[in-house]
Predict the structure.
Amino acid sequence: KSKTMRINHFFVSLIGTGDCCLGLYLILIATFDIYYDEQYCKLKYEWLTSKTCSFLGILSTFGSSMSVYTMVVVSLYRAIKMAGGQMAGNREVHLSVYTGIVLLAIAVFLSVIPLAPSFQDYFSNGLWYQDDTLFPTLADMNSHIQFIKKYKQLKNDSSATAATWPELKDFIGKLYNNEKAPKGVHQTFYGNDAVCLFKILL
């Protein structure tokens, strides 16, 4: 095979990898749709806060990012070749491999970073407390802050209100004294809708 053909096949394999991830995502989301069926309304928040939903979000984001970014690189590569651009020896092949590794790293980074604990304040949509009367449905950060402010007004507490998820969860836990405090589960960046897609795509 010529050098150009090898590079084209390499990039096409990257596009194929991304498309396979998207195909797997579609198969899994259809399977879970059948599994939940008429129970979805009852189990909505259980699904949206599940690790499975987060995994599907990672899978779809990685697959779409890998395919789109690689197609952009392929288009640029072909345009350069048509313009007569050349590199001596195997430098062109090595550059293509390095580019593929960078594309892979970018796709992984973009799909995983919304789930990093240190970025919860930016990407978490809210907390769900299962079977809790204090917050019977999903509660976003503003709902927590408003509740705590009203609670402090009743207690004549003038201290500053917590403003991060760990602080908010800690405050809610202290309200239960010796009782078992509900464990809030984060509705992650991908838990915006039943299909668990990247937020910008919804």
